[in-house]
Amino acid sequence: MLTDTGYASLVIPVLVALPVWFWLRKRSKRAPPYPPGPNEYPLIGNVLDFPFRGPLWEGLTDLAKRHETDVLRLKLPGMEMVVLSTSEAISDLLDQRSAIYSDKPHTPMIELSGFAESTLVLMPYGPRWRMHRKLFNNFISASTAKDHDVNQTKVVSDLLINLHRNPKSFREHINLLTGSLALSIAYGIRADTPHNEFVLMYEKILKVAQEGLVPATFFVDIFPFLRYLPSWFPGVQFHAYANKVKKDLHTAMTRPVEHVAEKLKSGVDIDPSMASMCLENLDDWGQKGIDIEVICNTLGILYIGMSDTIKAALSSFFLAMARSTEIMRTAQRQLDSVLGGARLPDHSDIDDLPYIVAIVKETLRWAPPAPIGTTHRLMEDDVYRGMLIPGGATVIENIWAICYDEVVYPEPHTYNPARFLDKNGRIDPSVKDPEARVFGSGRRTCPGRHLALRMLYLTIARILATFDILPADKDGRPSIPEARYSKSLLREPMPFECAVKPRSEKAVELIYHAVAIHQ
Ligand code: HEM
Predict the structure, then answer these.
(1) 377 pairs with which residues across the strands?
(2) In this predicted model, what pLDDT tens digit does every residue of 352-376 receive, in sequence order?
(3) Residue 4: what pLDDT?
(4) In what order do the strands lie in the sheet with 477-479?
(5) CA distance 487 to 15
(6) Spatial distance between the Cα atoms of 220 and 108, rounded to a whole number of angstroms
(7) 296 has binding-site annotation
């Protein structure tokens, strides 16, 4: 038998729940539907559908195709996710509505390790991000990318020498090339060995970013409330790890600037760099609200933003050449017809070398270094094509899906630079340019893309002018390397072998002559 209190304990929750239920029903009838996606289960949402196993970009492309949508919704515990897989959807949302699609989502580890507050790529959208971006654009933009041609030419000369001396270690040489370029532009430091103090500092940071800060490596990223546990709590290791990363990141970003400041103070002759120009005009920058911390962060992002991306693209280029000698020969024929084998190609030859330009485009399309870019965060509810995208959603631009759209790029798995050329061998403007998407979109689009393209163009042209890249020899037979790739968000070829050989005695002469000019 129920007492008065017993009745009350049944009736009161029902009285409270009913209006809430009616309100939610009314709201769900009024609110536009969410974008299509797999059915979600209570608590776990779409965890069972999420492509955790294979490469994420391919899994997301398949899911979008299965649900016949270019705006796919996935619900994960504590996270709304929207995946955009056509240029149209990306342009409509990330470009056209960039005022609300430009924030970045953060895991607790990204915040605790200092990456969110000091790296431009992960910084929350707002005045602080704007200040960093302004300083970056002042030195590296469409109009200023050319200012770094001399630095590029110097580090490419070093690369050619290294390839000649030790061709087997071509991946290490590419690594040094990008690190050295970043250090020379940012700080005027010429790093000619992988053991350079500053190269080692930044490589350590990149390793941590790829291994320790990948979402879900630490439990705290899956259960964010754990971040409030004190560091002395039994089993809590993430605080110590995050503090160590934060300290290393701070050192990598400040130490090279201190190095330049010391040199300036002692009156030693140094190569001009972003650091020297900032330090010499500290007061002017200060009046614009840009202090030494903003300067250190902005210069530091050069190594972080440049190194792995250009390295991945150049490694894919070596792989593609070793897999297709005919394509390499076609490029070399064009180089020889323009240069007559008498000099090395320069930035100024770009208009006469459309096949090299096409190789750069096809390399970025065939192997986009960041196949899902870096995620954006929607800052408020948005309605698109009658669908509700909830504020706070993590928005993924599936660059891979665009690069592998077989309607735009027939036989997308085949590496074929000629797809970008017209019948006269010039760049065909009617073929969609992958460069428009592989660098991301909207206000957060890659600010280093012009510099990156100039660097890729020069490096590829100079390598092909002087070297053959051929399949490695295995028991007297050419062994064509397989195109196997990492599943990491910065996608690069797995280790492979190829034979890098100078094209002629004259080519070797040109390589050493170019280095002598820069000594
Ligand atoms: C092949 C080379 C490169 C590729 C494929 C690439 C790709 C990307 C992508 C996809 C993004 C994210 C854009 C978005 O959120 O929508 C990005 C951001 C960024 N990249 Fe690059 N990048 C390359 C080279 C570079 C270079 C050379 C630099 C530096 C000189 C650089 C600096 C940055 C920075 C600072 C950001 C963050 C921008 C922001 O959030 O405001 N990148 N890049």
Answers:
(1) 103, 394
(2) 999 999 999 999 999 999 999 999 9
(3) 45
(4) 477-479, 467-474, 498-502
(5) 52
(6) 7
(7) no
Residue 297 alpha carbon to ligand 1 centre in Å: 15
pLDDT bracket for residue 226 (50, 70, 90): confident
Q: What is the pLDDT of residue 117?
A: 93
| Number of H-type helices and E-type strands within the chain | 19, 9
The model carries a pTM of 0.92
Total residue count of the chain as it appears in this document: 519
Per-residue pLDDT band for 223 (boundaries 50, 70, 90) equals: confident
Q: What is the DSSP letter of 191?
A: -
Q: How far is the first Cα of the chain from the last one, in angstroms, to the nearest whole number? A: 98
Using alpha carbons, select from 187, 212, 156 the residue that is nearest to residue 273.
187
Candidates 459, 493, 480; CA nearest to 157 is: 459
> Looking at this protein, which amino acid is placed at residue 516?
A
Q: Is 257 within 8 Å of 187 (Cβ atoms)? A: yes
pLDDT at 216: 66
Q: Whose CA is nearest to atom 17 of ligand 1?
A: 446
Tell me, using a 6 A CB cutoff, whether residue 448 lines ligand 1: yes
In ligand 1, the atom with minimum distance to the C-alpha of 445 is 13
- How far, in Å, from the CA of 302 to the mean position of ligand 1? 9
Q: What does the alpha-carbon distance between residue 388 and residue 391 come to, in Å, rounded to a whole number?
A: 9
Phi and psi (nearest 5°) for 267?
75, 10
User: Would you say the CB of residue 177 lies under 6 angstroms from ligand 1?
Assistant: no
CA distance 105 to 392: 8
Integer angstrom CA distances of residue 362 from 196, 238, 498: 33, 41, 20
Beta-carbon contacts of 401 under 8 Å, excluding residues fewer than 6 positions away, are 57, 60, 61, 64, 85, 86
Average pLDDT value over all residues in the chain: 91
Residue 445 Cα to ligand 1 midpoint, Å, equals 7
Ligand 1 center from residue 489 Cα (angstroms): 13
Ligand 1 pocket check for 306: Cβ under 6 Å:
yes
313 lines ligand 1 (CB under 6 A): yes
- Interface pTM (ipTM) of the complex? 0.99
471 membership: H or E segment, kind and range: strand 467-474
pLDDT of the residue at 40: 93
Torsion from C-alpha of 468, 152, 306, 453, nearest 10 degrees? -70
